[in-house]
Design goal:
Blueprint (H helix, E strand, L loop, with lengths): L20 E2 L11 E4 L4 E5 L4 E6 L8 E2 L4 E2 L1 E2 L3 E2 L22 H10 L34 H14 L1 E5 L6 E5 L8 E6 L5 E2 L2 E6 L2 E5 L9 E6 L1
Parallel strand pairs: 1-2
Antiparallel strand pairs: 2-3, 3-4, 5-7, 6-8, 9-15, 10-14, 11-12, 11-15, 13-14
Length: 229
């Protein structure tokens, strides 16, 4: 028997009633329509757009179907949707222990961060006896110095504070211009073939010149001089 109008029970009980049992959802359903799905043994109701499972057989109340909102996956075992939990949603007192973190994913994420994205150290940083490689030369006063920079700098200073060369031949008094800008220099002469030191008189003529005095005029390329400031 079909009813063409709503049936008002005037607050009386509907006893021993049975929800329509179907193995597929009714077609042309309207909002509020219900049926018992005999395929998965669940009670379902139409919300006007889709069928929603009310609970499992036996009235346990455990939800089923697709999860929504901040959840992903399906009931009864949904997961938290991606992007839901962020820094703003975690309290400082949460006390999440390391064992609750996926170490593989966590380590992978940390390794993708560059050092300039990490917080600056607040204490001495040990390199555990390892080298820093591929470092740029310093440009500011507090930049770390590379070996290349130090070698070049020391070499430039050493080069600037010395003068070397062959003693000119043909005269017993030879003026050597060293351009070191000081009379506080060390003068040494040595034999160019035997490398033995040769003692000669020398006069610090001025801040840029030393005069070497020989008893016998040196020959070409016989002696070399080294003048250090």
């Amino acid at each position: 028997m079909k009813f063409a109008n709503n049936l008002d029970l005037a607050l009386n009980e509907l006893q021993n009633a049975r929800i329509q049992s179907l193995n597929t959802a009714p077609s042309n359903a309207v909002a509020g329509q219900m049926y018992f799905d005999t395929t998965d043994d669940r009670l379902k109701v139409f919300d006007g757009t889709s069928w929603t499972t009310l609970g499992e057989t036996g009235g346990s109340g455990t939800p089923t179907g697709d999860a929504g909102g901040e959840l992903a996956g399906t009931y009864p075992n949904p997961t938290i949707a991606d992007g839901v939990i962020d820094n703003a949603n975690i309290k400082s007192s949460a006390g999440i222990v390391a064992s609750k973190l996926d170490s593989t994913s966590f380590n992978t994420q940390v390794r993708t961060n560059t050092l300039n994205q990490l917080a600056s150290p607040t204490a001495a940083l040990s390199m555990n006896s390892q080298k820093l490689t591929s470092v740029a030369d310093p440009t500011s006063a507090q930049d770390a110095a590379t070996k290349n920079y130090v070698d070049d700098s020391v070499g430039a200073v050493a080069q600037a504070l010395r003068a070397v060369g062959y003693v000119p031949s043909g005269d017993t008094s030879v003026a050597i211009t060293h351009s070191l800008g000081t009379r506080d220099v060390i003068v040494q002469v040595y034999d160019a073939s035997t490398y033995e030191q040769v003692e000669v008189d020398n006069v610090r003529t001025d801040t840029d010149t030393v005069t070497l005095v020989f008893a016998v005029a040196p020959t070409s390329n016989q002696y070399r001089y080294v003048i250090l400031a």
